[in-house]
Specification:
The chain has 665 residues and is of the alpha+beta class. It is built from 23 helices and 25 strands. The strands form 8 sheets. Strands 2, 3, 4, 5, 10, 20 and 21 form a 7-stranded mixed β-sheet that branches. A 5-stranded antiparallel β-sheet has the order 12-11-25-24-23. A hairpin with a 6-residue loop joins strand 20 and strand 21. The longest helix has 36 residues, at 7-42. The protein is elongated.
Length: 665
């Protein structure tokens, strides 16, 4: 059968196929064009940001922490740069094996391993944890040459806090440490929480903690180009950080060191205040501890040893210790007697060596009866009987109301955190605390600073400074001024007068004269024999445990930590018409009679501060690296100028320290 072809039909079919193919091609190109427009136009900004995010990273740049100087310009806290070796646990399989391998390249001690384990437990999820800090140049070179062997291990440049005087003033200055989860929660509640991006350290105690926001500075930001593996290759942009503000303290660090050395291995505290300003000149708590131990993260073994130490070196005794203050309370009670009219200066009582109340015999700490005692002699010879009777006549609530404005049992408001309130007892306090009424017999011991009385040494020093300042109250403070890191402007932090206690000048004069006589013919005469200036003082001996009636106290038969505390208060110069420039309260735990232990330490402090005289055999001070332009503590009486006139600290650079070195390739 013959088939006839239809050329026109074949042409039409071919044309239709060409049209379909063209339409498919056009549709494909249209789809590509649409996708191109979608990616390159509509989604351009978003995709550009994603690409840049994979190519670049924003890295916070930590600011240099502000420096801390004493009143004369001596650096107490500074910064330095060094390299650390850090491990990213998420990029390392067997961390222990990597640490062992690293130990063949750099020196890794057991304490480094213990600290690394502690940090790993505390900082779960952290991108990097240091295994070694402060590497030497030789160690940096050795690791850099073999870096390829250790994926997940990085060499980083860090700024470190350093306390050049070590243990000197550590309870006052405090220390920094790594930011803990609790710290993070606290920072999140701050208005400037964003400023802590990338921050690893924060002030933990003392001034470092209380002035954290002043010292921290402003975090910078660095945009860097990174490889696919996340390693930075170059910096694209940099917003530099602004260093933290510098602090100028009221502390005379040389005086601080002299006092700490005078304590030797004894436990206790001493606070010295400039009465006219509230400047704290020395803030001593003994024993002390080197704050440099905490900067990199303290070795857990060392931490356990510090906590287990029976001497409690971590306790800030000057701020948080509460004690009965013994006979140092008597000058204030004498003022209360004069102000309330319960005693006249010339009024005499008989001191037979004991006081009977409710069938109980209250003994005098003096070994022999003093006989006729007026107010002056009651302070000079420290008659307990006089103050037993006086307390009974005044009553606990009158004593409470008079002592409260002097700061006993009250927060002073000093500019570091953690201050304890203590106890200034009253009938209302006992009812609230124990749900019991006050008994008259409980008032007797209050008269000699015992019983329920429990005050901080800071409160005693504050009250002594107020007494030296004729009843004018100024809030004690440790930071004298803040130096702006950018402008260098000094911003004073010294508070103005808080209030005045309405006491008659003649009553202050009577008590002051008696306190001067304490160190001439009274209980403090041995410690202040030959002193070339007038000094007002009062000894104190405070019981730690009670003793039975009719039983004599024998320190040799009592456990050392149950023996009496030794106290002494003083201010100088205290001659007629002289304005005291320093007031001191000192306590030596379990050291017995106040004149035996506390008074000699106070004498050492006064001799150094007023005369520039060091005790024989003390040797050079760590803080003798005083800058030439700083004022000397020496011979203040001879110069006729108060310590408040000391020269300001020398100008320092806004950053306070050099920037950390760039990581080596």
């Amino acid at each position: 059968m013959k088939v006839f072809r239809n050329p026109q039909q074949e042409v039409d079919l071919f044309r239709s196929r060409v049209v379909v193919a063209a339409l498919v091609v056009l549709a494909a190109f249209a789809a590509l064009a649409a996708r191109f427009v979608w990616l390159q136009v509509i989604k351009h900004d978003e995709l550009h940001q994603r690409a840049e995010a994979q190519r670049t990273a924003l890295v916070p740049v930590t600011a240099n922490r502000g420096l801390i100087h004493d009143r004369n310009g001596i650096v107490i806290a500074e910064n330095f740069s060094a390299y650390t070796l850090e491990i990213n646990p998420r990029q390392v399989g067997d961390v222990a094996a990597v640490v062992d391998e690293l130990a063949t390249v750099v020196d890794i001690q057991p304490r480094d391993r213990r600290r690394f384990k502690k940090l790993a437990d505390e900082l779960k999820g952290a991108e990097s944890i240091p295994i070694r800090t402060r590497l030497s140049d030789e160690e940096v070179a050795r690791f850099t040459a073999q870096r390829y062997r250790f994926p997940g291990v990085e060499l980083r440049a860090r700024l470190f806090r350093h306390y050049p005087l070590g243990e000197v003033g550590s309870h006052m200055v405090g220390h920094i440490g790594r930011i803990s989860p609790a710290d993070k929660e606290r920072i999140e509640r701050w208005s400037d929480a964003a400023n802590y991006a990338g921050a690893e350290y924060i002030g933990k105690t003392g001034i470092e903690a209380s002035y954290q926001r002043e010292l921290h500075g402003t975090t910078g930001m660095q945009e860097v180009e990174i490889t696919a593996g996340g390693r930075a290759v170059r910096t694209l942009t940099l917003t530099p950080p602004v260093a933290g503000n510098a602090l100028r303290l009221s502390i005379d660090i040389r005086l601080q060191e002299v006092v700490e050395r005078a304590f030797e291995d004894r436990r206790g505290a001493l606070i010295a205040i400039e009465p006219a300003t509230g400047d704290v000149l020395a803030f001593v708590s003994m024993p002390t501890v080197d704050p440099n131990l905490f900067v990199d993260g303290i070795d857990p073994k060392v931490w356990e040893e510090l906590n287990a130490d029976p001497d409690k070196p971590l306790l800030n005794r000057a701020l948080r210790g509460t004690y009965p203050i013994g006979s140092t309370y008597k000058p204030f009670l004498a003022l209360a007697a004069l102000e309330t009219g319960k005693r006249r200066p010339e009024q005499v009582i008989n001191d037979p060596g004991f006081f009977m109340y409710g069938g109980r015999r209250f003994r005098d700490s003096n070994k022999v009866p003093l006989g006729a005692v007026d107010l002056h002699r009651s302070i000079v010879k420290s008659s307990d009987i006089y103050y037993y009777m006086l307390a009974d006549d005044l009553g606990v609530d009158t004593i409470h109301d008079f002592m409260k404005p002097w700061g006993f049992g009250q927060i002073t408001g000093i500019d570091i955190d953690g201050e304890m309130t203590g106890i200034l007892p009253s009938s209302e306090w006992k009812l609230r605390r124990f749900k019991q009424k006050w008994y008259g017999g409980e008032t007797i011991s209050i008269g000699i600073g015992q019983g329920y009385n429990a005050f901080t040494l800071l409160q005693l020093a504050h009250a002594t400074a107020t007494l030296a300042n004729d009843g004018v109250v100024l809030k004690p403070h440790l930071v004298k001024s803040v130096e702006d890191a950018i402008t260098g402007e000094q911003r004073p932090t010294v508070p103005k007068e808080s209030y005045r206690i309405p006491v008659k000048p003649e009553h202050l004069r009577i008590v002051r004269e008696a306190m001067v006589d304490v160190n001439i013919s009274g209980t403090g005469r041995g410690a202040f024999a030959g002193v070339p200036y007038k000094v007002a003082g009062k000894t104190g001996t405070a019981q730690v445990i009670g003793i039975k009636a009719n039983e004599k106290y024998d320190a040799s038969r009592v456990d050392e930590r149950h023996r009496d505390h030794s106290l002494f208060i003083a201010f100088a110069p205290a001659g007629p018409g002289e304005k005291p420039v320093i007031a001191i309260a000192a306590l030596v735990e379990n050291a017995g009679f106040g004149a035996r232990a506390a008074a000699p330490i106070v004498r050492t402090a006064l001799d150094f501060y007023l005369l520039g005289r060091l005790p024989e055999g003390m040797g050079p001070l760590k803080s003798d690296r005083m800058p030439p332009e700083a004022a000397s503590s020496a011979s203040r009486l001879a110069e006729g100028s108060a310590p408040a006139g000391a020269a300001p600290p020398p100008a320092s650079s806004p950053t306070g320290a050099a920037r950390p070195p760039e990581p080596r390739p």
